[in-house]
Amino acid sequence: MEILMPQLGETVAEGKITTWFKAIGDAVKPGDNLFEIETDKVSMEVPATSAGVLSEIRVAAGTVAPVGAVVAVVASDGAPVAAAAARAIVVPAPGPDAAAPASVKLEPFREVRTPERNFGPARLAGGAVVTPLARRLAGEAGIDLNGIMPSGPRGRIVARDVETAVAARAGAPRAVAAAISTAAAASADRVIALYEEGSFEEIPLDSMRRTIAVRLTEAKQTVPHFYLTGDIDMDPLNELRAQTNAALEAGGQGAARLSVNDFIIKAMAIALGRVPAANAVWAEDRILRFRHADIGVAVAIEDGLVTPVVRSADVKSVGAISAEMRDLAARARHKKLKPAEIRGGVTAISNLGMHGVREFSAIINPPHATILAVGASDRRPVETADGGIRFVGRMTVTLSCDHRVIDGALGAALLAAFRQAIEHPLTLLL
Questions:
Q1: What are phi and psi of 116, to 5 degrees?
Q2: 378 neighbors 393 (Cβ within 8 angstroms)
Q3: Distance (Å, rounded) from C-alpha 1 to C-alpha 3?
Q4: Which residues are registered as beta bridge partners of 312?
Q5: What sign does the CA torsion over 136, 161, 39, 347 have?
Q6: Where are the domains of the chain?
Q7: Yes or no: is domain 2-103 CATH 1.20.120.140?
Q8: What is the spatial distance between Cα 82 and Cα 54, in angstroms, rounded to a whole number?
Q9: CB–CB of 98/104 below 8 Å?
Q10: What pLDDT, on the 0 to 100 scale, is given for residue 185?
Q11: Of 251, 256, 384, 389, which has the most beta carbons under 10 Å away?
Q12: What is the pLDDT of residues 111-127, one digit of tens each?
């Protein structure tokens, strides 16, 4: 039985094998862990699904392989393992001086398909790999992919390549077409040539940084963003949080202290419940509206960020959300999240307040229709009803909205519901 590089998410195109738990000639049985893989988002152990003997290892530890590639072969009991081992194709792992993990072309490449959908990239007869979005756009536009020049990572044909071809076929102004082609063809060598040799250090891109670059570039180019910013009175919440944490400390539960972010997650869940039309995502030819509020929370890790999802936050207590987020954040920093824990969601929260950032705008992570950017809470002067001045705790938040799903009035209603929940925090504990 051939063991394939599994698909761990709709946007994951490759994975790196970090560890082999079995060696050639070892017996395996269903449930035994064969190897561990690392993608741009998670690490995961891959078990065997049948009994036999590991007869071939085709991808060594430390090597990147595309989804669907054959990474190993498990022979049935009694097979001539020694002969099979002699035919093994083992790609050596990069040495200690290597700048980045090796990426190898493996044959045969197998596209992973299900009867309904194909999530993985496809390889053309000429060898070029096509992303799912590019393949769909080309099919809709009637574009022959074999005639398109790839500009994506590792020679992939990406959505912008198809869009360029569509624009050219439609007779786009020559200057526009030239600008698109020039941007797509820009290479590292051309950028490097602008700077004095020895004045910089080259940092190779890992799979996470490449994926962040591709996904957020596509999001910013294809999602019609608009932004709503508001200031929120934080004094009632800060007072309630201080009292709650003091009670937890007195009860010997100091480790369960609640953060401002825990209340923000709950407040957004309540707001989505009050404005159900905003509890939705864009699905190309339709809008999906959800019964519960699944909220992603951006977590910064060493080489990027991930967004684990708190499921049904609308029916969970602030304490339960707090405990879940501590667990998710801890495992995110060690890339131990499961694929299901970073998949889906209707919105996300990005909080930079702890870094002293007062206000910012975040990029929507499709298919989400919104993302809330949370700034720092600080003391600000405000005018009182009698014309005097007093200082109050204020926090500035910015809601980024996908105009295909959220209109201006709907976005304003969602932000108002969020403000109402934060400024009346007792409702968050009910």
A1: -95, -45
A2: yes
A3: 6
A4: none
A5: negative
A6: 2-103, 122-212, 224-429
A7: no
A8: 11
A9: no
A10: 42
A11: 256
A12: 333 333 344 556 675 56
**What pLDDT, in 10s, does the model give residues 33-44?**
899 887 766 777
- Could you tell me what percent of the chain has a pLDDT over 70? 80
- Kindly list the distances between the CA atom of residue 66 and the CA atoms of 123, 154, 243, 320, in Å, as whole numbers in the listed order: 11, 11, 52, 38
Kindly write down the DSSP assignment for every residue of 340-355, as one continuous string: GGGS--SEEEEE-GGG
The gap from C-alpha 218 to its chain's centroid, in whole angstroms, comes to 13
DSSP string, 161-196: HHHHHHHHHTT--HHHHHHHHHHHH--HHHHHTTS-
Active-site residue flag, 334: no
H/E stretch holding 273: helix 260-274
Examine residue 367 and say whether the peptide bond preceding it is cis (omega within 30 degrees of 0).
yes
Among residues 225, 292, 403, 424, which one is catalytic?
A: 403
d(CA 276, CA 413): 10
Q: Return d(Cα 5, Cα 14) in angstroms, integer.
A: 8
Cα dihedral across residues 329, 331, 333, 335: positive or negative: negative
Is residue 230 within 8 Å of 397, Cβ to Cβ? Answer: yes
pLDDT digits (tens, 9 = 90+) for 247-302: 999 988 888 899 999 999 999 999 999 999 999 999 988 999 999 999 999 999 88
What's the CATH number for 224-429?
A: 3.30.559.10
The whole-model pTM stands at 0.66
